[in-house]
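hi! just following up on the protien thing from before. the input was this:
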Amino acid sequence: QVQLMESGGDLVQPGGSLRLSCAASGNIFTIYTMAWYRQTPEKPRELVASTTSRGVTEIADSVKGRFAISRDSAKNEWSLQMNSLKPEDTATYYCNARIMTRTLLEDDYWGPGTRVTVSS
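and the predicted 3d structure came back as:
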């Protein structure tokens, strides 16, 4: 059993900053990829940022230069630093991970989501 839990969602003014965190717990052997997605009622879920165990990072063009992803592999935690926030960044943000469990089963896992609202 593996659980992911996000934290840090909030209401913030345009131009402000917010840091989201995700913690994975449970029957984890290794985490290959840690990622953040976001979704609104009008758009399908989209990748915001991801980082692999080999250090390969991907950032969506829409947030490049404003958002950054970081990971603490020893703690099975990762974060999304969001700067210069815009109203269009308003969404529910989900953390995601590709995990190998101690029973050698590999699968994708999702957190329940955390709400980010950018508004004055």
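The chain has a mean pLDDT of 96.
The radius of gyration is 14 Å.
cheers
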